[in-house]
Specification:
Pathway: Amine and polyamine biosynthesis; betaine biosynthesis via choline pathway; betaine from betaine aldehyde: step 1/1. This is Aldehyde dehydrogenase family protein. Keywords: NAD, Oxidoreductase. It comes from Streptomyces fuscus. There is one protein chain. This protein is α/β, with parallel strands linked by helices. Helix content is about 40%, strand content about 20%. It contains 15 helices and 20 strands. It has helices at about 45-60, 70-85, 85-95, 100-125, 160-170, 185-200, 215-220, 235-245, 270-285, 305-320, 340-355, 390, 405-415, 430-440, 470-475, and strands spanning about 10, 15, 25-30, 35-40, 130, 140-145, 150-155, 175-180, 205-210, 230, 250-255, 260-265, 300-305, 360, 380, 400-405, 420-425, 445, 465, 480-490. Strands 14-15-16-13-12-17-18 form a seven-stranded mixed sheet, sandwiched between helices. Strands 9-8-7-10-11-19 form a six-stranded mixed sheet, with helices on both faces. Helix 6 links the parallel strand 8 and strand 9. Helix 4 runs parallel beside helix 5. The longest helix is centred in the N-terminal third of the chain and has 23 residues, at about 100-125. The protein is globular.
Length: about 500
């Protein structure tokens, strides 16, 4: 695991390399704004070499034709190696992305779960789906084959977790790939490539190019030898990826952002325990990983009758969240990932205040943490749909508060967004819970909870939250092509033409 301190972080055809150009990039610790690692800064030349290796491994290598049981066994070995290296990887994820070390450990657990899930999914499958052709002389079956060479472009907020959601199903299906992690947080994905090699993955199947999106990512999206591009990130970049991929008509999967509503009905707060739980979960929804979560519950939509009490307690507790370096004891929330991201968050808060929002807590940099990219958990009240901070994804520790009086109004507010990734409803009324969940246009809906996901359940969104799904059976299907094999067991002349 010393790999992250080296300049040879490009892995092509089983070999660790420097960038062809010799360029490097410093990796910055967001807790103190100081460099702590150096990686290779790849470009189009490195990308072409990686795609060439993946293409050769798919067309000529054994992996696509390896029996499913063997592929599943390798994925399970990877999961075991992740468990072995949990502490080291969790610490590295914490330092690279700024999250708490406990969040980093949980991420590694979830990565291992993803590899185990997809191993089990493919191992339990039937070899094909028999189709009744209506004749004993016809054998008809639908089989699933790997797509081919996959370009996997991952984000900076959950570096290894998001990579695993792509790498595990891609390998389970028999593909080869080139992964491009975020240039800001590439270190744990680099480490994963070492674990794949240790587990016995053949050379050329897994390749990584560390480098920026405008060179490496853009080249992967347009490359004619790439059969699928799976991208997780922002809306603007996703449009460029889709446009570039369209030229060669390759498959595209996009997992994008969200502006996720957390709807709280008054009856959820009727008891002291219910009130405390709803407030606690609203804090978790908005401020885990400093709000740098695509499914963050950044829009609190609370019933008017409990608004003042709810927001007052929420703001009081948000102000007490302990900020600091993620590896320090007692820290509950780390820094933002970069100075650029903090400046973006600050601009959203400034625009909200200019548009009439009221600041209940936060809204500034903490004075006692001047070195890193810290920003106080922020609660903005008196918000409305026309505000930029309500419409657009902030990706920071900023919670906006809207209110409603009726169930219909709550649903209308929750659905009044271009996104549709996730949402939650809090109520003690089981009938209302089912009604509201059924009406919400979001890919994941939680009832009396927020944030949990299951690897066996699909993840993705409606609208501008993306195209396709990750995880679950549909997540595996993204990395496959369906083929219909029709066999005539008793062929005879058709006599369509007289001859």
């Amino acid at each position: 695991m010393a790999r992250q301190h080296e300049r040879r972080t490009i892995h092509v055809d089983g070999e660790w390399r420097e960038a062809v150009s010799g360029a490097t990039r410093d990796i910055i610790d967001p807790a103190d704004a100081r460099p702590f690692a150096v990686v290779a800064e790849g470009d189009e030349k490195d990308t072409d070499l990686a795609v060439e290796a993946a293409r050769r491994a798919f067309d000529e290598g054994d992996w696509p034709r390896t029996p499913v049981a063997e592929r599943a066994a390798l994925l399970r070995r990877v999961a075991d190696l992740l468990v072995r290296d949990r502490e080291e990887l969790g610490l590295l994820e914490s330092r690279d992305a700024g999250k708490t070390v406990e969040e980093g450990r949980v991420d590694i657990d979830c990565v291992a779960d993803a590899f185990r899930y997809f191993a089990g999914l493919v191992a339990a499958e039937a070899p094909g789906r028999v189709v009744d052709a209506g004749s004993p002389d016809i054998h008809s079956v639908v089989v699933h084959e790997p797509v081919g060479v996959c370009a996997l472009i991952t984000p900076w907020n959950y570096p290894l977790l998001q990579a695993s959601w792509k790498i595990a199903p891609a390998l389970a299906a028999g593909n080869t790939f080139v992964v491009k992690p975020s240039e800001i947080t590439p270190l744990t994905t680099v480490a994963l490539l070492d674990l794949l090699t240790e587990a016995g993955l053949p050379s050329g199947v897994a390749n990584i190019v560390t480098g920026p999106g405008h060179t490496v990512g853009a080249r992967l999206a347009e490359h004619p030898d790439v059969d699928l591009v799976s991208f997780t990130g922002g809306l603007v970049s996703s449009v460029k990826v889709a446009q570039a991929a369209a030229v060669s008509v390759k498959k595209v999967a996009l997992e994008l952002g969200g502006k996720n509503p957390n709807v709280v009905f008054a009856d959820a707060c009727a008891t002291d325990e219910g009130f405390d739980t709803a407030v606690d979960q609203a804090l978790n929804a908005a401020f885990i990983h400093s709000g740098q979560v695509c499914s963050a519950g950044s829009r609190l939509i609370v019933e008017e009758s409990v608004r003042e009490r709810f927001v007052a307690e929420l703001a009081r507790r948000a102000a007490r969240i302990r900020l600091g370096r993620g590896t320090d004891d007692g820290v509950e929330c780390g820094p933002l990932v970069s100075e650029q991201q903090r400046a973006k968050v600050e601009s959203y808060v400034a625009s909200a205040l200019a548009e009439g929002a009221a600041l209940r807590t936060g809204g500034k940099r903490p004075e006692h943490l001047a070195e890193g990219y810290f920003y106080e958990p922020t609660v903005l009240e008196h918000c409305h749909r026309e505000m930029k901070v309500v419409r657009e994804e902030v990706f920071g520790p900023v919670l906006t508060v809207e209110t409603f009086r009726t169930e219909d109004e709550a649903v209308a507010l929750a659905n009044d967004t271009e996104y549709g990734l996730a949402g939650a409803v809090w109520t003690a009324d089981a009938g209302r819970a089912r009604r509201v969940a059924g009406r919400l246009r979001h890919g994941t809906v939680w009832i009396n909870d927020f944030h949990p996901y299951l690897p066996q359940a699909e993840w993705g969104g409606f609208g501008k939250s993306g195209v396709g799904r990750e995880l679950g059976p549909a997540g595996l299907a993204e990395y496959r092509e369906s083929k219909h094999v029709y066999q005539n067991l008793a062929p005879k002349p058709v006599r369509w033409f007289a001859g």
